[in-house]
Amino acid sequence: MSTAWRIGVDSRRCIGTSICAGTAPEHFRLVGGLSEPLADVVAPAEVILDAADSCPVEAITVRDATDDRLIAPEE
After folding, report:
1. Which fold, 5-72?
2. What pLDDT, on the 0 to 100 scale, is given for residue 2?
3. Which one of 14, 29, 30, 46 is CB 3.0 to 4.6 Å from 59, fit for a cystine?
């Protein structure tokens, strides 16, 4: 089990729906109309996966901070 996740938001894909910020406000915010993670590396939390899976354009990625394995969104 991973002990840390790396959160990324592709600003070229993000359309600013704010679903992520509404789902996980402790991990995402909108800046200039686009999503931004509050921290690059975080402790694993189910709400982060929910936010990534809810993004309509799959702009959010969650990776294992140790081996860079993609955790979300599911391929």
Report:
1. Alpha-Beta Plaits (3.30.70)
2. 80
3. 14
Q: Tell which residue, 34, 41, 32, 35, has the closest CA to residue 5.
A: 41
Cβ-based neighbour number of residue 46 at 10 Å = 8
Task: Return the H-helix or E-strand segment holding 50.
Answer: helix 46-54
How high is the pLDDT of residue 1? 64
Q: In sequence order, what are the beta bridge partners of 5?
A: 42, 64
Q: What count of Cα atoms within 13 Å lies in the side-chain half-sphere of residue 15?
A: 6
Asked whether 65 and 2 are in contact (CB, 8 A), the reply is yes
Q: Which residues does the chain have with pLDDT short of 50?
A: none
What ranges do the domains of the chain cover?
5-72
